[in-house]
Amino acid sequence: MKVLLEIQDNKVDFVMELLKNLKFVKAKPLDSEKDELVEAIEESVDELNQMKSGKLKGIPIQELLDEL
After folding, report:
1. Local structure of 48: helix, strand or coil
2. Whole-model pTM?
3. How far is CA 44 from CA 7, 38, 41, 47, 62, in A?
4. Between vectors from CA 40 to CA 2 and to CA 26, what angle results, nearest 5°?
């Protein structure tokens, strides 16, 4: 599971150090728009794979076009 945290600037170092010391947590800061774009693409690919495997239901393109 991925979680996005919003942390006060003066507490970032403390929280990152805490997370790095937990062996079951992978923590990396998202500092730039590029990092956020990569995360969004990864999430989209994951959702697409879930749709292909039947775990998520997709919306037909015609239904999306009708809404416009």
Report:
1. helix
2. 0.46
3. 25, 10, 5, 5, 20
4. 30
Task: Give me the residue label for tokens 């794979």.
Answer: 49
Task: Give the span between the Cα atoms of 68 and 19, in whole angstroms.
Answer: 44
Tens digit of each residue's pLDDT, the chain (68 residues): 888 788 898 998 999 999 999 999 988 877 667 777 878 898 999 999 999 999 998 888 899 899 88
Q: Could you tell me the two tokens for 48? A: 């697409």
| Cα–Cα nearest to 49, from 59, 38, 58 | 58
Contact between 5 and 11 (Cβ < 8 Å): no
